[in-house]
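Reply to dn_fold:

You asked what the input looked like. This is it:
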Amino acid sequence: MRVALFEDRAAMDQFSPISLLRPVFELLCGQFSSRERALRFLPVTDWGAFLRSELVDVYQEEHPESHVNDLDWLRVAPTLFLNGRWQADPKSLTTCDPETAGIIDGCVAYLTLDPTDVARLTENDADEALMGIARTRRRVTAPGRLVSYPWDLIHHNPTQLNADFAARPFGPSKAHQLGPQVALMGNPRQIHVDPSASVDPFVVIDARKGPVTVEAGAMIQAFTRLEGPCHIGRGSQLFRANVREGTTIGPVCRVGGEIEGAILHGYVNKYHDGFLGHSYVCPWVNLGALTTNSDLKNDYSAVKVPLRGESIDSGELKVGCFIGDHTKTAIGSLFNTGSAVGVMCLILPDGELLPKHIPSFSRIWHGDLIDGLPLEKGLETARAAMERRNIEMSDAQERLLRTLHAETQLERERAIERAFSKSESSYSGGLPQSM
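and this is what came back:
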């Protein structure tokens, strides 16, 4: 079976900052990304990916077996096209009839692309081309949903965690061998602990609200509490952590403190105390001691989030922060409800709530938003952080960061100008503008 995942226009425009260095189908929701879910639950023999041109080199490097933006590959045989924003029960993937086109909210969730259809695809307007092809099929309502913004991943994470656990054929589990000093609550069949994972005494695993998965090589230290549904990824370490329901912790994270309804993509360091709620944190982020975010407004109104500086009403009561790759926060950083923090930011707080919009490659210096450190210094720090996990930054990754730095320059300049104007207004006694 041939499968291709694609980014549509909404995926390219509406998932900043967490999609700046990856296609939307590599974002986590539940136990897997959309790409991982398709490859795990479908009988895939060959697969491809269609994504933004600036991501091609890095993605091909990370997935050398894939066919990236390769129209010639599509001309060989029929290929199941999957929208990277489509989140569904894994069992739904096996019901994609090649004679139908799955539609959600007027967008293509899936369709089988024939070799004769390839000529209709254009780089500038793939969405309209796919809808045109879908009109030649019997259109049906696809199961599941299309996520449209970063907070949708958080909202649907508990449901997806349950679906992924139910569909997954697990191997041996050591949950029943953990001994009387590890408290298992709820249905033990809803708890899977890989035999190579380490679970100390005085750990609580609570599956009364949903399943709990602890993957290979994970280490759970004493006085940690895991509340399902939740997922602890390969090689991650939890230190006296209170992991609340709806949380996904990806691979090779170090986590302490309280986490609720959040997604840590992987390679995230949150070792110390502090609250992280209803948030998405990208790789190579380091959250300093007592870094905390708000995820609920005092008046219980819907949270607005500044994506690339534009305030978007999420319609959600609980939204935390979205933090891009390689960002570092200092001790006591306090993020406001619905904050968006870009790639490679440096946060040095002054004890007050931080700005909700912190563009990529910028700094908060004693509470003020300013331009970032020189790019070369930022790259040097990123290389050092990756080497601590025995990973080397590739030339393609460096080129992508340099490209993103140039592309986000105008966003930084505008945000700094707004911050300066607000500061001047407050100093002169005027009313500061609210985001």
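The CA atoms of residues 218 and 235 lie 4 Å apart.
Hope that clears it up.
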